[in-house]
Amino acid sequence: MLATISSVLSTLSFGTICLVLVGVVLGIAVxxxxxxTATMAVAVLTSFxxxxxxxxxxxxxxxxxxxxxxGGSISAILMKIPGTSSAVMTALDGYPxxxxxxxxxxxxxSTVSSFFGGIVSCIFLIVxxxxxxxxxxxxxxxxxxxxxxxxLCVIANASADSLLKGLLGAxxxxxxxxxxxxxxxxxxxFTFGTQNLMSGIGMVPALIGxxxxxxIMNQLFTIDSEKKQQQKIDRIFPxxxxxxxxxxxxxxCSIIGTIIGALPGAGGPIAxxxxxxxxxxxxxxxxxxxxxxxxxIAAPECANNATVGGALIPMLALGVPGDAVTAIILGxxxxxxxxxxxxxxxxxxxxxxxxxxxxxxxxxxxxxxxxLAARWFAKLINTDKKILMPLILMACVxxxxxxxxxxxxxxxxVIFGILGFFMDxxxxxxxxxxLGQVLGALAETNFRSALTMSQGNYAIFFRPIPCVFWALTxxxxxxxxxxxxxxxxxxxxxxxxEAE
Length: 500
Fold this sequence. Notes:
Distance between the termini: 77 Å
Radius of gyration: 22 Å
Low-confidence stretches: 225-231
Structural class: mainly alpha
Shape: globular
Number of strands: 2
Helix content: over 70%
Order of helices and strands: HHHHHHHHEEHHHHHHHHHHH
Mean pLDDT: 77
Number of helices: 19
Largest sheet: 2 strands, antiparallel
Strand content: under 5%
């Protein structure tokens, strides 16, 4: 044990700590730009770590990971353009708060919540890595299919006034995932004879179009009529009183994020959606969600940053990436001769402890940079819309093109921008569409694989673990509706009693 601690401390040089700081700064910068996600940052910068010592490479990559996940909330709060898909739910309450002149406070809540979720997930990572990894290892095709269905119902219920409209948005998203080459058979579907659709609809241009271009179109109708709201940037730290009221939210959502992050392939978007809906369902005033309340920012931000520690659990213990970023990090580890999996705890425990230490340091840097730089981020909202909107549109075009270096993705961005604009007008959830696109392929692939495994026996979807998620899915749909009916009846009785 002493030898392991000594080995870890030897990697904590001034240089490696600086690399963590550089990684966090780069991650925040890249994550805050629509289209340039943490996954892209890690993928591009991995090549620069090949000549580094393994400890230095790990330090920088983990810094980028932590900073990138947090950075997506900045543009979501200030511009309603999530820098990453994990920040979709943050925009629901962050942007309305920003429009009220509280952009700095919103970023402060986001930063502190992200830090809390990240630190709690690190504690789970350190204390229960092997135990949680064993639970995650039991999940196979049926479990992942039911989780996908559960996630679709969660977002459909959370992001629309009408459950039917929420489900419609999710169904549209699922349909979009059927475009392109079939993952199992290799047969083209809905490609209409064009090679550009063979690989399907890209997530990045769709995300930018739905939340970026559609918002620009909305702003065009208010650019002259809307009175400019100046940001109040005199106070960034939300205050101990606000944080005290959020302590229950932060603790619950940290646990949700860590557990979901530990499920290979789940990731930040699902964690943010589940956490947001959980708090909305349990709130005494669910109607306030989406109007700009601290709980609506704290819940998704805490959960999606908690997935960082959670995603590292299967990566370290099983050698299975928890999400796209850890898949790239897993490859970087292999290049440096580090073999992850159950034997790593016996063969190279210093690597495991290095990951623990660097992740904690990255979270500390993240809260410091976030709080110090939030004042400058919040000033973006004071820029004249006639200047800001073209700049945002330019960033959207660059982000869409950079995602795959194809002009076709710019057309996709425009189409989805128009689609998002009309969906907002009729009240269909664009957030549900994005989650449908995220979970559609996961649901289809695991559904068909499960039936292949069971030779067409549907009973495989009713094993103990799937049954738990079926029950949660039903409860997710039934309980809010039951509460609404009861509340309506009580209100009706009160009116009748008053009339009498």
